[in-house]
Amino acid sequence: MKKRTIISAKSLMIFLRYSLIGLFIWNVLHLMVFLIFHLGPAVLFGERKGVHLPIVFSPSNEGILTLPNTDYEYMFHIPAATGTFQAYGLPLKFFYLYSISILVYFACILLITYLIIKMLKNAENGTFLVINNAIRLRYIAILCIVTLLRDKVNIIASSHYLKDKIELPGLEFYDLAPYSFQNWKHIFLYLFLLIIAEAFRIGAQLKEENDLTI
To answer: Which UniProt keywords apply (predicted)?
Structure first.
């Protein structure tokens, strides 16, 4: 029974590792498409392709909610929401800032995926509790924090740039709204992951010292 459980766990790790390898290749292809068809023409010929920018908005009108099996109608209001605005002909400076943001995103995602693949490879070989994996876990936490901050800076900067430049009846656009800081609590999870990584490192170091003593 124990042997069967070990085999099942190893099969799961192999499946996860190859799935992440596929995800890594997929993101590399996406990065190449962005470099060739979006950033490349801008750098070489000054052509700016359409880009999808996030923006925060709120409907200025209230809506009506009608529930089934009731005779009542309720008024509701959407305080904040986010959408995607497809922008063409952006100023070159803003286009480059947007491109840097995209490159940071791809760099973080690719590095996180690569580090997890390396950790799973060690787990397959039965050497999961090692200092290198603790260091990888620390880098994963830091990269997750960078990705979260990049996302928030991106939506705030984009909304600030677009709020006075677009008009749509019934919608009010903002540069800052509660929605801009959605998921900010995730940063505490990533900080906790840093603590786990340090505990992991200490445990791996003690294990190596005990192995040397034996």
So the answer is: Membrane, Transmembrane, Transmembrane helix
Task: Indicate the number of domains in the chain.
Answer: 1
In which element (H, E) is residue 154 found? helix 131-162
How high is the pLDDT of residue 129?
84
- DSSP-based three-state secondary structure for 64: strand
Beta-carbon contacts of residue 206 (< 8 Å; ≥ 6 apart): none
* Amino acid 212: pLDDT: 65
To the nearest whole percent, how much of the chain has pLDDT over 70?
94
Range of the domain at 28: 2-213
Q: Using alpha carbons only, what angle is made at residue 115 by residues 112 and 118, rounded to the nearest 5 degrees?
A: 150
Lowest mean pLDDT among 20-34, 63-77, 147-161, 184-198: 63-77
